[in-house]
């Protein structure tokens, strides 16, 4: 049995190790490689993940690891750490400070712990099952927004909404009170702290969305896939996070109507 309190303390320690590495490379000349999906990767991403994996291997040698840069090991274990060393590498390589480090701990596939660490702004959000979400140790809560017409919404990149998904983007663009772009993991942090009300993303990977689950939940929000299902390793990568159950339910209904206008 893994003590979640101790696991969160450990997550904070490894984030403390990761931050100086990203800050060391930030806004310096770097060789940028491109993965098969054309997403960028740098020495900073790889160095951070190697450091985190080594620390996990020492502290929890029997736990599994799912990392963006260096693959998977022991995924059949009861406990699995999920790592995204730099979420927002496009921001990182262009000198934009809103990139973050993401860590999650899964138990039997369910996210039990999550962390968003912003090494440039010095902000860190932590969520753990059954406990309130914190930012730098202080409790945070989502807003009480219940209607899309009043919602401040975020999505990272509107160009990712292609084919039928483009209608989802257009619906939010046309009906939300305000729509902003960029942010990556920082959008979920802003949602947890009550500064925005809605985050809608598509084509994400497990290391992008699993670390934010307990952060959103512990602040009072709701986060699922676009069908309303709990997020897991096998989710589609389409993510809907909302400040309140009412706002979340409205978005699910609107998305369903776009897929099945006759039935709606």
Describe this structure in words.
With 264 residues, this protein is an alpha+beta fold. The chain folds into 2 domains: 4-139, 2-Layer Sandwich (Fructose-1,6-Bisphosphatase, Chain A, domain 1), CATH 3.30.540.10; 148-259, D-Maltodextrin-Binding Protein, domain 2 (3-Layer(aba) Sandwich), CATH 3.40.190. It has helices at residues 4-25, 43-59, 89-93, 166-175, 185-192, 206-209, 213-218, 245-259, and strands at residues 33-34, 40-41, 64-67, 71-73, 79-87, 100-107, 110-118, 123-128, 134-135, 138-139, 152-155, 178-181, 198-201, 222-225, 239-242. The strands form 3 sheets. The protein has an 8-stranded mixed sheet, sandwiched between helices. It has a 5-stranded mixed sheet with strand order 12-11-13-15-14, sandwiched between helices. The chain has a two-stranded antiparallel ribbon with strand order 1-2. A hairpin with a 3-residue loop joins strand 3 (64-67) and strand 4 (71-73). Helix 1 (4-25) packs antiparallel against helix 2 (43-59). The longest helix has 22 residues, at 4-25. The protein is globular and about 50 Å long.
């Amino acid at each position: 049995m893994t003590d979640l309190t101790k696991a969160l303390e450990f997550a904070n320690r490894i984030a403390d190790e990761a931050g100086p590495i990203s800050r060391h490379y930030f806004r310096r000349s770097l060789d940028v490689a491109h993965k098969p999906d054309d997403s960028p990767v740098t020495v900073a991403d790889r160095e951070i993940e190697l450091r985190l994996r080594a620390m996990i291997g020492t502290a929890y040698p029997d736990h599994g690891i799912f990392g963006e840069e260096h693959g998977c090991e022991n995924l059949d274990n009861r406990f699995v750490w999920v790592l995204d060393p730099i979420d927002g590498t496009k921001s990182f390589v262009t000198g934009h400070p809103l990139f973050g480090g993401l860590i999650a701990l899964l138990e039997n596939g369910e996210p039990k712990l999550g962390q968003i660490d912003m090494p440039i702004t010095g902000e860190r959000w932590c969520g753990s099952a059954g406990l309130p979400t914190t930012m730098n140790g202080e409790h945070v809560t989502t807003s009480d927004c219940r209607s899309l017409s009043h919602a401040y919404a975020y999505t990272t990149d509107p160009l990712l909404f292609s084919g039928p998904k483009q209608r989802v983007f257009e619906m939010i663009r046309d009906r939300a009170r305000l729509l902003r772009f960029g942010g990556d993991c920082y959008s979920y942090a802003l949602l947890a702290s009550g500064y925005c009300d809605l985050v809608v993303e598509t084509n994400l990977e497990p290391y992008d969305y699993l670390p934010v689950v307990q952060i959103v939940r512990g602040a009072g929000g709701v986060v699922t896939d676009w069908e309303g299902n709990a997020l897991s390793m096998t989710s589609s990568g389409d993510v809907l996070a909302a400040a309140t159950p009412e706002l979340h339910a409205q978005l699910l209904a609107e998305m369903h109507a776009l897929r099945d206008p006759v039935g709606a």
